[in-house]
Structure formats: C-alpha cells, structure tokens
Amino acid sequence: MGRRERRSHVFAETLDHAGGEASSYFTRVAFCFVMSTIETQSLTEIRRDLHSYPEAGWKEFRTTALVAEELDRLGYELHLGGDALDTSSQLGVPDDDELSRALSRAKDEGAPGRYVDATDGVTGLVAETTFGDGSGPTVGLRVDMDALELTEAGDADHRPASEGFASRHPEEMHACGHDGHTAIGIGVARALREDTAFDGVVKLFFQPAEEGGRGGYPMSRTAHLADVDYFMALHLGLDNDVGTVIAGYDRPLSNAKFDVEFSGDPSHAGKEPNDGRNALQAAATAIQNLYAIPRHGDGPTRINVGQVHSPNAQNVIAEHAQLRVEVRGGTADLNEYMRDAADRVIEHAAGMHDVSVDTALYGQTTSFEADQALVDVVSAATRSVDGVETVRDRDQIGASEDASYLIRRVQEEGGAATYIGIGASNVSGHHTSRFDFDESALNIGVEVVTGTIDRLAGVDAER
User: Fold this and answer.
1) What CATH number matches the domain at 254-365, 3.40.50.1980, 3.30.70.360, 2.20.25.100, 3.90.1150.10?
2) pTM of the entire structure?
3) Is the CA virtual torsion 19, 25, 28, 33 positive or negative?
C-alpha cells in the first residue's frame, strides 16, 4: 500500500469510526454547505480566506483541515492532532463545549470533514516528505495558525473591511499575521513540489495556539524535531517595511501567563458588609502591588494584568474575582524573578482580605539565540530574492515567542535554528483591531525559505 493510499485508508477509518462511510458522509455535507478548498487559490487568496474565518488558539479546525487537504494533495505525509503534538503538555485549552462549537463551526464554514475528523479534537499538524534520494539534511519550518480574541475594525479605511475579507467571527481576528504565515507555509510546500534541487527531508510544522504561549511547548515535545538538522520559524511585519528581511531575530523575552482566582464569601453590601470576605478587594490590592514589583537590574522585566472579571451585583460583596496576569524577563531567570514576586504579592493580597486564592499556568515561552551559521545561509539566500532591498543579519525580537521551545529543542538535539523576520509594511501595530499587511511579502517569505533550503543541501555536503 503506497503512502497516499495509507493516508486515505486512515482517514476512511476515521470516518467509519465517526459513524458512516465516506461516500454517505460527503453526500450529507453537500446539502449543508459548499466545501471549501484552497487548491486553486493564490497565496493572497488563501490569506484572505483565512483572515475572513479566524480561529483562536486550539480552535483552528477549519485552518488545520484546509492545510491538511492541500498538503495531502501535494503528497506530504500528514501527522494530525495528537500525532503532531504532546496533548499532555497543552496549556490554556478551552473547555469541551467551546471546542465542540468551534469544530462544528469549522464544518459549517466548509472545512473538509474528513480532515476535521482526523484531528480527533486537537488542532495542528506536521507534514513531511523526502526530496530526491533523501541523502541531504532534514529541514524544518514552523508557521503559526491561530488568531487573537479581538474584534476587527469595520470602518471603510480598513482594507480588509473595504475589500470584503474582514473577520466574520465576532471577537476573533488575525491581528498578528498568522493568516499570512500559514499561507507562506502552504506556498513553501507548493514551491518545493514544483521545483527544487534539494535532496533531503522537509518537515512543515503548522502550530496552533501561539498567542498566549500555549502551542509551542507541546509541539516541541514530540519526536518530529529529534532529527531536524536545520530549523526556521518566521514572522511577517514586526514594523519592518516590505523588502526588509532579518535573517536572525532572537533573544525574545521569556514569558509566563497565569490565571488567578480569588474566592471569598458574599454578603449584602448595605445590610451586612461585615459578614462578607471581598474577593474583588483582594484582586484590586494584588493589581496595585503587582505593578509595584521592582524591576531587575540585570535586564528587562515586565508585568501586566490584562483581564479582570468579577460578575457581581453592585450591592453584594464580591465572592469571586479572576485576573489574567503575565510576566516577562530578558532571560529565564529574570522571568522567574518576576513570577516569584508576583506569586508573593498575590498570596499576601489574599491574606490581607481573608480570602483564598488559586493560580493556574495559562501559557509560557522561553528565550533563544539564533545560530550564526544558519543566519549566514538565510542571509546569503535572501540577497538573491526579488523585492528584497535590505538584509539585516540579526536583531532582537523584543516581545515573546513560543517558537522558542521548538528552536531550543532542535539546538539541544544538535541542530541549528533561526527566526526570520519578513518585512510587510504593517499599517497598524500587531494585536490591534486595524492590523493589516502588504501581501507582496507572502511571495518574498516563500522565496526566502525555499532559497535557504536549496542552499542548505550544499552547506550540509561541505560539513
């Protein structure tokens, strides 16, 4: 049985397990919606389709299924869901009801059902194939797929709105370019199939849940990275113009995001305020003092309280209050300093107001340094790419990035890794409701990656 036949057999079994033969399944779906496909779409069309149907972390079922269908068509071997990442290491996963709604929505919006079912409720995929005789290196590329929980601007001078590809999902938006990253990953898969002199293995990592630092660590825990010789991740924009490429972004801030829940006792705020234990007051005390944590002299440290919730009537002493907090540090040790200080503040804020408190890790990232040898190869390949005017060898990311875990894993296994910045003239800042980018950067991103892969075969032969 050939590789594609094996995959079809697996997907058929998945459908049988779901309760029906593939033919009857697709007959039923045909009456419900028009099946989406990206086989004939350009990279810009793919990006705009994904932008219209954004999916937040761990809910990227439509995106995963569309990518899987296209890469299956191209002959890549697919690893979906739990075969793409370590499910026991997932962080910040929505509850079962929310995931079920996201899965159903994906099918309603045209996701190919056989691939949605094959995820088994876990988004993300790894696709791999061998080129030539396979004697060369194994090269990995990671792109992220998730959207932010943010409502997109709808005014006429916001291009996605005026040209009809703005988000159709309330409170979900591609505001960081991950729709473009996914399109670049597909473009690389296509370009390598069409024309490459590369002899070796290529692995494409389509990662879920980058926002919040939730998907990188689980994906880094699999065996898919154990044999990778060279690894690249990339990001569009980052306030660089189209035509600018950074071959080695590195040194992102280490980061930890965690949820905090204060629990007290309710009482009538007018009649018996003395009988209550005020969880909201404890949360307010914590917020004030979290921002007062002294910054460290050894490097940058950050803290932010991004969410506060206490659904409560105005005349009742608050029984519950929740915070979502993040800390960052220029190194893992500095991040740990901030986390320890934050834990201490939260614990004592609870004690001051005689309430209990629980914390739970929501997401995390670490830091890394790009390998100069690979930076040099990316830089050399980029200089021959049409549309590139400026190539910078290195720069510091400044924010946080959970590709750091995949990069560190490759380096620990003896491979080399880098993080590439592709200028895209973003018209508004990342994570804002008016974010957009120049789509001419998509082809530049594809050519930078494929040019690097072609060069790596020669570099490996010289080692």
Assistant:
1) 3.30.70.360
2) 0.89
3) positive
